[in-house]
């Protein structure tokens, strides 16, 4: 019901095609673990979704209520939010929110690079172990 209420921009108890399209996009991004990229590329519509009272600022409550959009742990979300709050008023303007999306994309890219490096190191380690076993087998055969 939270998602429906977020998308019911006019508070009529129904959503139109634009809201339905946004819902499908959010769900697809979430399903494919592309939340950061989605929010970065569609920062204006996401900002408008989170701006519940129409004051063109997003409070901490909105972030916590819709944290599933970000797929970020609560502590990290809080850190990024406060780092983006340049004015210090505990509410993000669109420019501050855009900065938030840049921070989240940077963190996402750092995480992806770390995962790739980890996979590469694991692959190299596995290759060394296989080569070591092959050499040991060859030495055993040569000694017989």
TrEMBL record:
<feature type="domain" description="EF-hand">
    <location>
        <begin position="72"/>
        <end position="107"/>
    </location>
</feature>
<dbReference type="InterPro" id="IPR042798">
    <property type="entry name" value="EFCAB9"/>
</dbReference>
<dbReference type="GO" id="GO:0030317">
    <property type="term" value="P:flagellated sperm motility"/>
</dbReference>
<dbReference type="GO" id="GO:0048240">
    <property type="term" value="P:sperm capacitation"/>
</dbReference>
<dbReference type="InterPro" id="IPR011992">
    <property type="entry name" value="EF-hand-dom_pair"/>
</dbReference>
<dbReference type="InterPro" id="IPR002048">
    <property type="entry name" value="EF_hand_dom"/>
</dbReference>
<dbReference type="GO" id="GO:0097228">
    <property type="term" value="C:sperm principal piece"/>
</dbReference>
<dbReference type="GO" id="GO:0005509">
    <property type="term" value="F:calcium ion binding"/>
</dbReference>
<dbReference type="GO" id="GO:0005737">
    <property type="term" value="C:cytoplasm"/>
</dbReference>
<dbReference type="GO" id="GO:0061891">
    <property type="term" value="F:calcium ion sensor activity"/>
</dbReference>
<protein>
    <submittedName>
        <fullName>EF-hand calcium-binding domain-containing protein 9</fullName>
    </submittedName>
</protein>
């Amino acid at each position: 019901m939270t998602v429906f209420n977020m998308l019911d921009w006019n508070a009529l108890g129904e959503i139109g095609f634009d809201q339905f399209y946004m819902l499908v996009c959010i769900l697809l991004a979430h399903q494919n673990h592309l939340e950061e990229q989605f929010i970065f590329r569609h920062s204006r519509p996401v900002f408008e979704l989170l701006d519940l009272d129409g004051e063109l600022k997003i409070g901490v409550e909105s972030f916590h209520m819709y944290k599933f959009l970000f797929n970020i742990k609560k502590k990290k979300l809080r850190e990024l939010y406060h780092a983006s709050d340049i004015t210090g008023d505990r509410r993000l303007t669109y420019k501050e929110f855009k900065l938030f999306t840049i921070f989240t994309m940077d963190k996402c890219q750092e995480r992806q690079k770390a995962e790739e490096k980890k996979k590469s190191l694991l692959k190299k380690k596995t290759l060394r172990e296989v080569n070591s076993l092959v050499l040991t087998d060859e030495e055993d055969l040569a000694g017989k």
